[in-house]
């Protein structure tokens, strides 16, 4: 039979309300009484019912984290940073994965509301913004990760993806490449839209021909399949820029399987600088993002907002990604 709060009160010889205060508002309980209750809990191996406390209070110390693709090591690092910060502050992180599917994202948001999360960290799709608005209506604070908030009443920690896309094309142009394949993800993701804007801006400035290839999901197999199309196109493409490293690694595998050499036949750049990039068979040039830092900082921001309420000042923090040059790129051979 489960041990109840009444059993603890009886063992400690205090009122049930006193035990309830100890569990929820320990500062209201005298030190001597706290010690009696702690001893009773230890003797009975009592485990507090967190769900019941959440029902009474209407909230919890649980933070939701909703990411578009947990198989992507970039978001794994984001989750690790957020989780470490949450744990250090005595919060629990509840992780959800949308698989870049707006409908699944909507379902997760409903479940997180039902779980009475105290705050949400999210990399939202354009369609997911309506769900975020619903959380805000319910006074559940949200912080965007890897996407800049458009409202000053919304906190975010993001990257300047326009700059990232632009800098990759500028670098390839400096190596002499004038025909570049751009492999991008779905337009439902702001990151993809902004990276492409940077790509096209730089291409116009540098007089570069861009061949666009778009995929529904940004995974290695998608990159592999796009590479086959590039090879079949018989175009003058000499460089390939992918919107994330997973796709770039898929492209790399396909090119090598087809007897191509990197970077002699094709220069290749990815985005995110995940851990696998440096240790690939041909180390991958990439646009680096501080994934762990993004997650950790976003978690601290949401905790601060939860704990300070109306006194919290929202921020929109933007980092500039950095080009990390490795063996997958070189100057075009004349």
Automatic annotation (TrEMBL):
CDD domains: HTH_LacI, PBP1_LacI_sugar_binding-like. Residues 3-57 form the HTH lacI-type domain. Keywords: DNA-binding, Transcription, Transcription regulation. PANTHER family: HTH-TYPE TRANSCRIPTIONAL REGULATOR GALS (PTHR30146:SF109), LACI-RELATED TRANSCRIPTIONAL REPRESSOR (PTHR30146). This is Unannotated protein. SMART domains: HTH_LACI. Pfam families: LacI (PF00356), Peripla_BP_3 (PF13377). One of its GO terms (molecular function) is DNA-binding transcription factor activity. InterPro entries: HTH_LacI, LacI/GalR-like_sensor, Lambda_DNA-bd_dom_sf, Peripla_BP_I. PROSITE patterns: HTH_LACI_2. It comes from freshwater metagenome. The keyword DNA-binding applies.
